[in-house]
Amino acid sequence: MTAAQEIAARAIDPCATSSNIVAAFREEGDAAIDPEHGQAAMRARVEAVRTGAFDGAEATLAGQAAALNAIFAYMARRGHAQLDQPGKAGERYLRLALRAQTQCRATLNVLAGVTGHRPEDAEAPRQYTQIERRIVYPAAGPGEPEIVRHY
Predict the structure, then answer these.
(1) Of 11, 40, 75, 117, which has the most beta carbons under 10 Å away?
(2) Residue 105 to residue 118: CA distance in whole angstroms
(3) DSSP β-ladder status, 147-150 and 134-137
(4) Residue 39's closest CA among 19, 13, 11?
(5) What is the pLDDT of residues 57-102, one digit of tens each?
(6) pTM beyond 0.70, yes or no
(7) Predicted confidence (pLDDT) per residue in 93-144, tens digit
(8) DSSP code at position 136
(9) Contact at 8 Å (CB) between 46 and 57?
(10) Which of 38, 35, 104, 115 shows the shortest CA–CA distance to 65?
């Protein structure tokens, strides 16, 4: 393989790009991640998922959900503080808070699917109709009825 082919192969290799991004955003003193060791760790994580070990994925999703919840709380506080101020900063902060909240919910739903634990309250609504103000939850199992809550 030529040097140019090697560069091209690394540029599109998901393990290489993922480990490079992790290394770029890692901020722990002077300890840098060696690119070869980073790729090896990423390949080991991918292989573990392929064999059915989702421990790392579960930890990642749980950490992401906690971080997104913290972002939601921070942005909501900032938005509330800016509501009485001129301009649209308060509205923008609140929109960012709601985006983080939505992503947190989506992350928790994925985590519930990965772990196999899907309590009824964690189930995402399938349909939200603003006019009638109702939420329709899917059936819990075969032969079970949908749950419709009116607000």
Answers:
(1) 75
(2) 13
(3) antiparallel
(4) 19
(5) 888 888 899 999 999 999 999 999 998 888 899 999 999 999 999 9
(6) no
(7) 999 999 999 999 999 888 888 777 655 554 555 554 444 555 667 777 777 7
(8) E
(9) no
(10) 104
Enter the tokens of residue 45. Answer: 């994580």
- Round to whole Å and give the CA distance between 6 and 55: 32
Q: Judge whether 137 and 120 are in contact, CB under 8 Å.
A: yes
Rounded distance between C-alpha atoms, residue 35 and residue 121, angstroms:
43
Question: Distance between CA atoms of 65 and 75, rounded to whole angstroms?
Answer: 15
Q: Measured between alpha carbons, how far is 79 from 55 in angstroms, rounded to an integer?
A: 36
Region 3-15: what's the mean pLDDT? Answer: 87
Contact 148, 135 (CB under 8 A): yes
Element (H, E) at 147: strand 147-150
> How large is the average pLDDT for residues 45-68?
86
In the beta sheet, which residues pair with residue 135? 128, 149
